[in-house]
Amino acid sequence: MDRNLCHIDVMKGQNASLPSWKFRSIKINMRVWYGLMAIIMVLSCKKDQRQQLFTLSYPPPPINFQILPGLNTFDTHIYTLSPIPSRYATLLANSGRSEGEVIAIEAKAGYLSSVFQDINLDFVHRVSVFIFDPFEPDNKIEFFYMDPVPFRDKTVIQLFPGIADISEWVKKDYFGLEIRLDFRQNSPTLFQMDFQFELRAMGDK
After folding, report:
1. What's this model's pTM, rounded to 2 decimal places?
2. I need a surface site. Which of 13, 65, 74, 191 has the fewest CB within 10 A?
């Protein structure tokens, strides 16, 4: 069953013997398969040859939203914050780097908490954060997430950074954020949430 969205703003075979030539062929094919898999694993584990040029930290401006009491566990609760100044041009200039040196901008660290970090967020089951173009809201991509949020008492949720290049959105003057929350328990009370995150501008070594 699909979750509601709540916007706020092998085959069985018979046993049979195989001729010896077919058996040898299968063994050879399996060796080729394992060899290919080993090559793929080595390539996928290759060390990132890029370097971090500078970071982009938010806030400023403050990124806050309000959670109402008694929100249910059946809906995905969506909070939209837009527009947010990217400050990319200023941060680029302050870094002493040039536009041509930046080959990607990626998520680095993200934290979700109540404004005063005094609310137990154990009722939150899943978090997904999207960045979007305020002038084309459907043009969006997930760049932070936590699924599931570990089941223990906490006042801060540290999010996993996505691997997507979000240059397309960050290099503009403004971007928007869409924070999606799923709950394992009803929200306990009315309070303000705070989202802080850091991005990294990457370049070639």
Report:
1. 0.78
2. 13
